[in-house]
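Internal QA ticket QA-208
Title: Verify multi-chain structure generation after dependency bump
Assignee: T.L.

Test input:
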Amino acid sequence: MLSDRHPILLANARIVDPSRDLDIVGDLLIAEGTIREAKKGIGAAGVPEGTEVIDCRGKLVAPGLIDMRAFIGEPGEASRETLASASQAAAAGGVTTVICQPDTSPAIDNPATVDYVLRRARDNAIVHVHPMAAITKGLEGKEMTEIGLLKAAGAVAFTDGAKSVANAQVMRRALTYAGDFDAMIVHHTEDPNLIGDGVMNEGEFAARLGLLGIPKAAETVMFERDVRLVALAGGRYHAASVTCADTLEVLRAAKDAGLSITASASINHVTLNENDIGPYRTFLKLAPPLRMEDDRKALVEALRTGLVDVVMSDHNPQDVETKRLPFAEAAPGAIGLETMLTAGLRLVHSDEIDLMALLRAMSTRPAELLGLPGGTLKNGAPADVIVVDMDLPWVLNPNDLKSKCKNTPFDEARLTGRVVRTIVSGRTVYEYI
Amino acid sequence: MTIAPKPSFVLSRRHLLGIEGLSHQDISGLLDLSEEFVELNRQVEKKRASLRGRTQINLFFEVSTRTQASFELAGKRLGADVMNMSTSSSSMRKGETLIDTAITLNAMHPDIIVVRHHASGAVELLARKVDCSVINAGDGSHEHPTQALLDALTIRRNKGHIDGLLVAICGDILHSRVARSNIILLNAMGARVRVVAPSTLLPPGIERFGVEVARDMREGLADADIVMMLRLQRERMNGSYVPSMSEYFQYYGLDEKKLAYAKPGALVMHPGPMNRGVEIDSIVADGAQSLIREQVEMGVAVRMAVLEALSRNLPNA
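Actual output:
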């Protein structure tokens, strides 16, 4: 697979490396799957024989993105998405490492399934894939999985995916036990009883659409509980998808108290709000639901300051049969691997966030939290690199998407900036011409 | 009251999916047109030919007696060929088939489809997949535009006007499409609207609908010209929204005593079907102040007006 690997020089680029706050104009040399050097004038000084020299003409060069939350249908629901199709989508979106979620069929809750996913990914995926494994067997929220063995098999963290562990005792024990293995617990914080029959954010807009709402408290209540449990049990904890200002206050207090608690926000929640649902657009039905503009702004601010550590795609392919339904009956979820960066660049172009902070949340921070070697352009790091044309205007045509499902909230959206080259382990896996 | 026919009135839209988006003029035009049909419906010869040759399909995914009968009668009196389809009599038992059903029916070239569905937004979804006119006969907790129009017609005929009246809408606002359509319509027509319900049956954010909010009947009915009761569905009374039927009736059921809180001679309305002894006492429902039977009569006239107005807009008309 790596036989056609030759040295690559990305010349005349704007090189941004959030792992060391580096933002320079210069060249980046890649050889034998690793980053050799990033500085000004490498090309002028001469490069090794057979080097492919790519004149970037000022385009951005950054670490490949690490997407901490993507739902992929393997095993069990390959019609929605395979590791192969997801990895194509990821490459097109500048994601060089995909963290797949255990809500599969069967669930990724035993070492053999972790092994299966890793082998399938090795043979079929063009980007790195690491699975998270379930916290509880069958994602049922009752019995703990074999956290030690799963971690040894290659699970990078533990989560029940889009499900919450409602039983506080189960969560307490999982945190306690996982702590012994330095395994991170990643939790979807939504109280299922408070969600009830709700299908979107609770408030005026839901009332006007005649849809039952989900209060923000459904998230905050569960997250506050978890903060108490982490204080009690210890362990490393990561909130999988925070959406509202109230949760951020709790998160700030938890971090200030020195607890090992971090958080992600989805690209959807930092770029969209409930009004985007408009006339019952089911592609914007998400779990947790899109919130209000004030919440979105608070999330972006938290991202800017680093209070929220990670931005992830929350990639969730749903086909026509589960989406072309009345809003309340449609499945939640949106695809996002291919659009995560370009959607995030909206925030950069509108001066809501600086590029360094955005890239840090999409690459360096996830690598640090998961203990993965990427997310940096330091010498010797894996050559997972993207080249981005920051100013390229384009319109998203869902038929051009690599993902098997086309449920994108950015359907027909006008976007600025896109990934033009994705390099994984020193090999170009995607090129936009 | 005689209203001159206005054959020139056209609803400048293909579908009637809700009251939302209708102007004061649209609503007045429909009510004026309805008046004609009230007269017509009281004659021996009730037929018109304005929909002759047209096909109207009544597609009901949720059981209904009066709305479906009323639309059927309205279509037939205007000369349309009316076909009724309901979930009990066909394969469309699940939401999954909504779009397929729409595409199938569309291939039969109907001119108007009247749809009721249990999910909010379902009628709009269906409307996007067909070439004909679509009338929303109630979608989930979203809208029920013809109910609001018939309520407005009933009020206007009894009070002579709508603007300036205080209308108290009482009961399960949270789940009620009738409440939403009425709030929008009555606000558009210049009425004051007050909603009265226990907090568990009020949608969060309701205060931003341009309504006054009251949690008890004495405060809620004070100075009301119209008391509009809503049906409380029995499945809501299992303790999750209200503790019991008898407690609900005690605090929110409309009896003579509570009706006395309203303006003397205040008129009582109910979209039906009624739960006698739950949200309304029989003495009030059948009493002199009740407009409930008149609402049913107005229902046929309003639906004829809507069908007629939309048909004037159909291609080849």
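Spot checks passed. Residues 154 and 295 of chain B are 6 Å apart (CA to CA).
Status: verified.
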